[in-house]
Amino acid sequence: MNKIINAILLAIASVFPAYATEATCAQQAQLAGTIMRARQSGVPMSKAMDIVRGSRVSEVMVEYAYSEPRYLSDLYIDRSVQEMENMAYAICHKIQNEVQRQSARKPKAELGT
Q: What is the C-alpha to C-alpha distance for residues 63 and 57, in angstroms, rounded to an integer?
């Protein structure tokens, strides 16, 4: 599981804009929840990958969602969706903070100002 989380971190970091906001993280979390809900509903992984093709972040989310078990209980389904949303939000927020921290440390000449 750590390998998957690291892959998500790398994928998000590679495309994460320095100007991202909390809304961006909320959108990532919502996307992650939608992907997990699709997985729990029985959508085939191949179809999910076809839908998100071209977005490495989304592809990694699909890979992670489909590495998790499929549940029958609504309680467990809702819990898996919430956990996926929380993980995506936490990763996004962590990257956002790191990007902002690194931007603050760069000399103005490097920032193009």
A: 10
96 is a domain residue: yes
Number of structural domains found in the chain: 1
In a domain, 100, yes or no: yes
Positive or negative, the CA dihedral 45, 51, 54, 56 is negative
Q: Residue 101: what residue type? A: R
Domain hosting residue 70, numbered range: 28-111
Distances (CA, A) of 26 to 30, 33, 34, 46, 57: 6, 11, 12, 26, 14
Share of the chain above pLDDT 70, in %: 73
Structure confidence by residue, pLDDT tens digits, 42-79: 999 999 999 999 988 899 999 999 999 999 999 999 99
- Dihedral over alpha carbons 79, 84, 88, 90 (to 10 degrees): 40
Whether 16 contacts 47, CB under 8 Å? no
DSSP-derived secondary structure letter, 42? T
Residue 1 lies in a domain: no
Within a domain: residue 9?
A: no
